[in-house]
C-alpha cells in the first residue's frame, strides 16, 4: 500500500470569533498549513477537501469550498482548476475531509492533496443557526425512537430522560451514556471530573485553546450543572475555528527540502465505522474503527504514546479509552482518575486540552486533533510535550444513533 505523509498542519485559535467570516478562518488555516509545510503558495495541490456543517445556516450551501477558495484562486494562492470536494459528517466532518485527501494520495491518482475543516457556531444575532446545526446531528425522522431508547436506558438506571432548552440533545444523550456506565461499572462523577480538570490544565498550556485556565476536580464538580452527571466544565463550549492539513506521497516527499522531510508525519493507519442501535453490552463503533486502524498500522494499543479523543463531554474520554483498548471495559474511570492519561502518565490523552478546553467548532475538530498530534510527534509542543512520543492516535466521533455516535474515525500517525 502506498505511503502517505502529512507535511503541513495548522489550527486557528478556537474561540468566539464574531468579527471573522468563514472565509477569514479558512484563509488563515490554509496559509498557516502552507507555511508549516515550507510553502508560500499551493502550486502543486491537485485536490481540495472542505469539511463544514453550518454554512448553509449562514446562506451558503452546496459549493461551500468553492465559495471560500475562489478569492484565493484569484489571488494566485490556490491553484486554478483544482476540484474542491465538500463533505459533512457531523462532528467527524474534518476527519472525513482528511480521509478524502488521504485516499486521493493512497490511490496513486494524486501526489499532493489538501483538506480543511471550518465552522462558526457563535451567532449571537441569530442563535437559531447554532440550534439548527446541532438539531441535524441525529436521525430527525426517528426522534421518537431516540427518545424511546433513552427512556429505556433511563428506566434501567433510575433516571428520566429530560432534554432541556438550555443545551443540545447531545448533552442529554451523553449524560445518559454516563449514567449507564456509572450504573453498570461503578464509575463516579468524581472520575469524570478528574478527566475534565486534567484537560483544562492541558488547555491552559495551549495558545490555540478556547479556554485557557486551570481547574481542579472539585471546581469542575462545583461548576453549573448541565445534565447530571455533567457540569459545564465537563462539556465542550460553543466556538468558531478552522484546521487543515496537507498530505503527500512518499515520492513527492522525497523531492522536498530536508527541513520539510524531517518534520513529515506518516499516516500509518486509518479506520472508519458507522453507528447503529446496539445492545448496551456490545462494544461501540469506535472499537470497530480502532481495530481497523491498528490492523492497517500493524501495531496495537500498547504502542500508542499520545492520543486525542473526542471528549464532547468528559465522560467520553473514559469511555473511549475503553473502546480504543487502552484499558479494560468498565475501568475507564479508574484509568483516568489514576493519572494515566495526564502529564507523565502511561498514555497522555488530550494534550491539546481536548474539546472541553480547546473547543469544538464542529466542522474543524478532527483536523485540529491531527494538528496537535503532529506537533507532539515533531517534539514542538512546549510545556505540554509528551517525552519521546513516536506513535499517536486520534479518535473523532460524530452525530448520534441511540447510545453511540453515527460515525467514528480513528487515525494513527507515526514519527519517521
UniProtKB/TrEMBL annotation:
The keyword Transferase appears for this protein: yes
Superkingdom of the organism of origin: Bacteria
InterPro entries: Thiolase, Thiolase_C_2, Thiolase_CS, Thiolase_N
Keyword vocabulary terms for this entry: Transferase
Domain Thiolase N-terminal: from-to ranges: 5-217
Domain Thiolase C-terminal: 286-403
A Pfam match: Thiolase_C_1
CDD domains to which the protein is assigned, alphabetical: SCP-x_thiolase (cd00829)
Entry annotated with the keyword Transferase: yes
Name of the protein in question: Thiolase family protein
